[in-house]
């Protein structure tokens, strides 16, 4: 039996608690690879703990950010920081949803090539 890989382009990519583990250079590498895989109109859903824009109020996120910095070189980011990262890799229509717990969701759409 021929076992050739089934190649398709998903409509949605999900990265859950991945991006915060890495410093900016590695995040750019991850997002670049996802962007190259995405067809126009595909979505990218990031599930992360968000900092507030001033980085003063989300105490759990601030502690987690310090932990990520010490252990992995990564950090928590604000919605604005995620939007900037995503737009640099061809994603637009960035939407943020605070889910009521420690995790938040960021949904963005890939624009054309």
Automatic annotation (TrEMBL):
Q: Where is the O-methyltransferase C-terminal domain?
A: 9-91
Q: Which SUPFAM superfamilies match?
A: S-adenosyl-L-methionine-dependent methyltransferases (SSF53335)
Q: Which residues form a coiled coil?
A: none
Q: Which UniProt keywords apply?
A: Melatonin biosynthesis, Methyltransferase, S-adenosyl-L-methionine, Transferase
- Return any one Pfam family short name: Methyltransf_2
Q: What class of enzyme is it?
A: transferase
Q: What is its EC number?
A: 2.1.1.4
Name the pathway: Aromatic compound metabolism; melatonin biosynthesis; melatonin from serotonin: step 1/2
Origin superkingdom: Eukaryota
UniProt cross-references to PROSITE patterns, sorted A to Z: SAM_OMT_II
Q: What does this protein do?
A: Catalyzes the transfer of a methyl group onto N-acetylserotonin, producing melatonin (N-acetyl-5-methoxytryptamine).
- Under what name is this protein listed? Acetylserotonin O-methyltransferase
- Source organism: Saguinus oedipus
